[in-house]
Design brief:
27 strands, 44% strand, globular, mainly beta
């Protein structure tokens, strides 16, 4: 074979290999579309930090006993395993992927002053193949269908503005010049309170990009559950109330001043604000039968199909849980602590 033919064959081979690599990379970076109506996590979880997220029978969570890094387990807390070294919250999940705000990563503990790993990330459900979607200090992350909605500061300002970006890192948009908490979503619609002239209830259709005023009433943490919006009453004393979207009625659920709340299938778990006897409580979805869960001040109330998780105020490395819909039985989440200890011994 002549030298000229060898050069032609070699060049052709290089071109074919390059094309093959390009096609493989293109396929690997392609994110399959989620079905219409997809929501990445519950409003209650996201309003409480989004430290837990359940998807396709698996619970993904930030393990406080291991610096808030990403873990997974079965809903009954079996088969706990560490996925990666990312410190995460605002967890969302759909299809084959997880989406979350990564505060930092312990992958480069000696170079954290040089390598800044915070931002909005996507990974597969094994915690691998991380892609940074937006290297910014993102807040209030919510996945709706194939788009992530979130707030972030712009140009060195501390003022938050509202953004969106598709799961494949395309079509990044600045939706509004003010903060929006998009945690509550259903059927392609976001429900949120205003943050400028008032705190009225608004809805944003993600398909048409149209905002609609729903209710002229000042509220906080509006949380859609069925045909009702649960919220903290800013026109009262932060009592927990319910607004019915069908008949426009408002119902007071408790006269206690409430700081945080979350919902299971049968209960509302809520933290009361009382100088003498603060407590984590629960009651029926209609406000009936309030009962004590734990005395004291708690935060980050997150819910899965099996358990309710919460931690004491001012403490990051202790986590309690109780059955979500059974009898109250508060214990520490020892299985997560034991799993973290095993990781540290590796």
């Amino acid at each position: 074979m002549s030298g000229k033919k060898k050069i032609i064959i070699s060049t052709a081979s290089i071109i074919l290999v390059s094309i093959a690599i390009y096609i493989l990379n293109l396929y690997a970076s392609k994110v399959p579309e989620n079905p219409a109506g997809t929501v990445g996590n519950t409003a209650g979880n996201l309003n409480n930090g989004g430290y837990f997220c359940q998807s396709d029978g698996i619970v993904y969570f930030a393990n406080p006993y291991d610096g808030g890094t990403l873990y997974a387990m079965n809903p009954d807390e079996s088969n706990i395993r560490k996925l990666n070294r990312s410190e995460v919250f605002q967890l969302n999940a759909a299809g084959d992927y997880l989406y979350y705000y990564q505060k930092n990563s312990s992958s480069y503990p000696n170079f954290s002053f040089v390598i800044r790993t915070y931002g909005l990330y996507r990974s597969d459900k094994k915690g691998r193949n991380l892609v940074c979607l937006d290297k910014a200090d993102c807040k209030n992350v919510t996945l709706v269908d194939n788009t992530l909605f979130y707030s972030k500061p712009v140009d060195g300002s501390t003022t938050l503005q509202f953004f969106s970006i598709d799961t494949d890192k395309k079509n990044g948009k600045n939706i509004a010049k003010h903060d929006v908490n998009p945690a509550s979503a259903a059927d392609g619609v976001l429900y949120y309170n205003g943050t400028e002239e008032n705190h009225h209830l608004f809805a944003y259709d993600t398909a048409s990009a149209q905002e609609t005023l729903i209710k002229e009433y000042d509220m906080w943490f509006p949380t859609l559950h069925g045909q009702s919006i649960y919220f903290l009453d800013l026109e009262g004393n932060y009592e927990l109330c319910r607004y019915n979207l069908n008949d426009d009625s408002l119902t007071l659920l408790t006269t206690d001043r409430v700081e945080f709340f979350n919902l299971t299938g049968n209960y509302i778990y809520y933290q009361t604000v009382d100088a003498d006897s603060p407590a984590l409580m629960r009651m029926g979805l209609d406000g009936s039968n309030p009962e004590l869960v734990a005395e004291g001040i708690y935060r980050d109330i997150n819910v899965t199909s099996e358990y309710v998780y919460f931690r004491p105020f001012g403490t990051d490395d202790i986590l309690y849980h109780t059955p979500a819909d059974g009898a109250v039985n508060v214990t520490t989440f020892d299985a997560a602590a034991q799993s973290a200890l095993k990781e540290h011994k590796k």
